Amino acid sequence: MFCFVCSMPGCFLKNNCWQVFASVLSSNSQLRELDLSRNDLKDLGVQLLSVGLGSLNCSLETLRLSCCGITEEGCVSLASALKSNPSHLRELDLSYNHPGVSGVKLLLERLEDPECRVETLNMPGCCLKNKCCQVFASVLSSNSQLRQLDLSCNDLQDSGVQLLSAGLGSSKCRLETLRLSCCGITEEGCVFLASALKSNPSHLRELDLGYNHPGVSGVKLLLERLEDPECRLETLKLVHCVASTLSSENNFITSL
What we know:
The protein is α/β, with parallel strands linked by helices and 256 residues long. It has helices at 15-25, 42-53, 72-84, 100-111, 132-140, 157-168, 187-199, 215-225; strands spanning 5-7, 33-35, 62-64, 91-93, 120-122, 148-150, 177-179, 206-208, 235-237. It comes from Pundamilia nyererei.
């Protein structure tokens, strides 16, 4: 019997469990998806887990560690594992942890490795500031495999979106989904996003700007981009934004 998915969020697991998981990951098992969210791993648990993750025998494709008390130190271990075994992991969820700027930088440096196959990176609620966005922009413009990025519930503000948009607008950026819900974005941030869509219109499929403050003019700028025949945006989320007075007849939009 093969086990492809192991989901154990919120199971009150402690550090003495992680060595067992590491052993499984490094044992040529069939495990492809592991969810340990809302368990008290902390950095020590991640260090133990990363031993298995970095094994060449590990074929794990999805790892979810949301709300596990992970800091920069844990990111060091994860980055090391990705360096040792870069070709299998496709999705990494670190939502609601505290990686810090240096922890984020370490992880994103691994994503710039041409051998790294991470396509989905979820980091909402990680207390990230605008400084981090320059590192994300570097990854987006580096021919990385990243296709989905969730930075919701971080205090990026317009200055962070400006930095991020520099990468998003690069012709090398292949990002398809960008989630920036509840990031303190105003009309000014929409100007940068609209500019990025103008420079690189053919890849982004979904943009989530829910719970921001784009204003009517900011929304209008974004919708004007959708009139470009080359724009491939299919889903635009503006939940709880000032957009009720606007509508678009553009056929590409399936969710607004």
